[in-house]
Specification:
single chain, 702 residues, alpha/beta, 7-stranded mixed β-sheet, 23 helices, binds iron/sulfur cluster
């Protein structure tokens, strides 16, 4: 790896892993990627992390899907297929046969049981054009909005709070803007592992004297650079954040002029906060009142402050309330819309921002236009030359699987998502997949989800295709094909078009640029951004105010996209976790990612360098907890919740509280989501991945 020998050509494109969106230069030799260098993209300025630099050879894996597959008559569905030898359960088919079977099955179920018996999961790992086409396929082809993707599992609650209170679901400032901040809060995020290149900017900020305030129940790596580390009790975010805001009110440190000019509902928020003094909240959140007051002063009196957050905030039944608090904190201090200020939910997947912008969500059309908005639906019906479609908000990821169990949904088209690993309470999710009468899965590997499919369609990987992606910074970037897809694998957009045609839709696109041009007709966010510009410039940030403007890295300096141009405060109350520790399950389980592996592991566990570094399923416990259990680091433990049990290797980590266990979710052999709680946040409909009651025992013990 990293063999720096001769190469034939260089292709500049975008890293396919996380939402940072680093640009890469791929060095190609004999139509294979020989090595990768960081390119001078707007988000990364030449930097890369271990995944972007060394995690590329999954695309040359012998396990890539190279031909369409159809399930053999009577072959059982489930995780009993060897991905290296799928022909035990599937037979190879021609594209014609597979597309006919895939589309024919969807049409048959729709005809027999009504179009609502068909639903779709799209992907945050495909391009903007592919996300757009996929939601169009479900809406135009079946007339409803039962289409969603993994944003539901990561930042749906953040987006709900942002749209509610500032009128937009995207970040108000790029993460690079931290260069101009005096103080920054990073809460519920572990950027050193999950957004590693963004973390380099955070570390530089701290090094030049910026006040870095880290808040997390786990002592994440960024604590070593922090001026304050608030290791609060899991699930007590609202108590802690309300206490900080209450201190700001008590000490009169809020920005009266900003509040008066740009916000509404302040008096209600202020009155609400009176119940949350730092002294009252300290025993709840576990942070001393003096520390809460010190943080309040640092943030409120700073010239410029930013707030970054991750899934430690969003993946709770109170995820939307957590985000509401962060928005209120920024607004009351006037830390939005100026250099060095802003709200930034750190996006997970490489294109989760773009897929959401493109309408791959059940309640919004492209650009977050509500499906209940008659004019917006009419506009898209005109663009698509179709009839109207449902004004009813569609079902979300977890609701769709519940509807499968109820028998209301009988067929699914799943593009690049892996719910057999990513959804909470996996036994429930897998049983739903197994019960479908017809399942079409389109992916680059025979994922755990594809093992339940009736038809598997082999897709090109990101480095094999053309398409745009949008990172956490709102930067729309050009992805360019570097190597040919293996065997008969094809670009996702072309497969979606072929399915659509078989469903009777009169689609004709010859290239993704035509899809991008169509998107621009319905998405004002893409004004002044053209395919040619992206080819030329590589990246343009939206909004872009002119054909020459590289885009606005900071927005909302002069009003918000809400009625009257004002942002709003929404007071948040304390809502406890859905499941609390008790005598049977006395500890707290929290799940997350680790540096070397990406989400369900489909790519990184087939990337030889990354898998060599982190080959084994593991969890982390405090050394004192291990001692109490009589388990040495490296030995195995059993984790059991009300939903399931797994066994895996235990590591010692002092950063984990003594009553917690941290569990990465990339490992199929010890799948974390067999244990997680499917309880949902009522607004964002996001599951509580960050909190479940768990019992930990030595493996083999009673
Ligand atoms: Fe890729 Fe994210 Fe690493 Fe950048 S930080 S190289 S986008 S995984």
């Amino acid at each position: 790896h990293g063999d720096r020998g001769a190469y034939d050509r260089t292709v500049r494109t975008v890293c396919p892993f996380c939402g940072v969106g680093c640009q890469v230069d791929l060095k190609i030799r004999d139509d294979r990627i020989a090595w990768v260098e960081g390119a001078d993209g707007p988000a990364n300025e030449g930097r890369l992390c271990v995944k972007g630099r060394f995690g590329f050879d999954y695309i040359h894996s012998p396990q890539r899907l190279t031909k369409p597959l159809i399930r053999r008559e009577g072959a059982p569905k489930g995780l009993n297929v060897d991905p290296a030898n799928p022909l035990t359960h599937f037979r190879e088919a021609t594209w014609e046969e597979a597309l006919d079977a895939a589309a024919g099955g969807l049409r048959r179920i729709a005809d027999e049981h009504g179009p609502r018996a068909v639903a779709g999961f799209g992907s945050a790992k495909c391009s903007n054009e592919e996300a757009y086409l996929f939601q169009r396929l479900i809406r135009q082809g079946f007339g409803h909005n039962n289409v969603d993707h993994c944003t539901r599992l990561c930042h749906a609650s953040s987006v709900a709070a942002l749209i509610e209170n500032i009128g937009s679901g995207a970040v108000t400032a790029t993460f690079n803007e931290i260069e101009n901040a005096d103080v920054a809060i990073v809460i519920g995020a572990n950027p050193i592992e999950n957004h590693p290149v963004a973390a380099t900017y955070f570390k530089q900020f701290a090094k030049r004297g910026g006040k870095l305030i880290v808040m997390d129940p786990r002592g994440v790596g960024l604590r070593r650079h922090a001026t304050h580390m608030l290791k609060f009790r899991p699930g007590t975010d609202v108590a802690m954040l309300n206490a900080i805001m209450a201190a700001i009110v008590e000490e009169g440190l809020y920005d009266r002029q900003y509040i008066e000019t740009w916000t509404e509902n302040w008096e209600a928020e202020k009155a609400h906060l009176a119940r949350f003094s730092p002294e009252a909240m300290a025993p709840i959140c576990g942070i001393p009142a003096e520390t809460l007051r010190a943080v309040a002063r640092d943030f409120a009196t700073a010239r410029a402050g930013m707030i970054f957050w991750g899934m430690g905030v969003s993946q709770h039944v109170h995820g939307t309330d957590n985000a509401r608090c962060l928005i209120s904190l920024a607004l009351m201090c006037g830390h939005v819309g100026r250099p060095g200020t802003g709200l930034h939910p750190l996006r997970g997947q490489n294109n989760v921002q773009g897929a959401s912008d493109a309408g791959l969500i059940p309640m919004f059309l492209p650009d977050y236009q509500s499906v209940t908005d008659d004019a917006a639906r009419a506009h898209f019906a005109e663009i698509w030359q179709s009839g109207d479609f449902s004004a009813e908000k569609g079902l979300t990821v977890t609701e769709i699987l519940d509807a499968v169990h109820a028998g209301d949904i009988r067929a699914m088209y799943i593009l690049g998502e892996n719910p057999a690993m990513s959804d909470p309470d996996l036994n429930h999710a897998r049983a739903a997949l197994a019960s479908l009468e017809h399942l079409v899965v389109q992916d680059i590997f025979l994922t755990e989800t594809a093992m339940y499919a009736d038809v598997v369609l082999p897709a090109a990987a990101f480095y094999e295709k053309s398409g745009t992606v949008t990172n956490t910074n709102r930067q729309v970037q050009m992805g360019r094909p570097a190597v040919p897809p293996p065997g008969e694998a094809r670009e996702d957009w072309a497969i979606i078009v072929d399915i659509a045609r078989r469903l009777g839709l009169n689609w004709s696109y010859a290239h993704p640029r035509e899809i991008f041009d169509e998107m621009k007709r319905g998405m004002k966010s893409l004004d002044n951004i053209t395919w040619d510009r992206l080819e030329r410039e590589g990246a343009v940030t939206y909004p872009s105010l002119s054909p020459e403007d590289p885009g606005q890295s900071i927005v909302f300096g002069s009003g918000f996209p809400r009625q009257g141009g004002r942002a709003s405060f929404t007071p948040a109350d304390i809502v406890p976790p859905a499941e609390r520790p008790d005598a049977d399950f006395p500890m707290i389980l929290t799940t997350g990612r680790q540096l070397e592996h990406w989400h369900t592991g489909a790519m990184t566990r087939r990337a030889s360098v990354l898998d060599a570094v982190e080959p084994e399923a593991n969890c982390s416990l405090h050394p004192a907890t291990l001692k109490r259990l009589g388990v040495r680091p490296g030995e195995r433990v059993r984790l059991t919740t009300r939903r399931g049990s797994i066994e895996l290797m235990a590591r010692a980590d002092r950063a984990v509280a003594e009553d917690m266990v941290f569990l990465p979710f990339a490992y199929v052999e010890a799948a974390a989501n067999l244990l997680t709680n499917p309880a949902l946040d009522p607004y964002g409909k996001i599951p509580e991945f960050k909190f479940a009651a768990v019992r930990v025992e030595p493996a083999g013990g009673s």
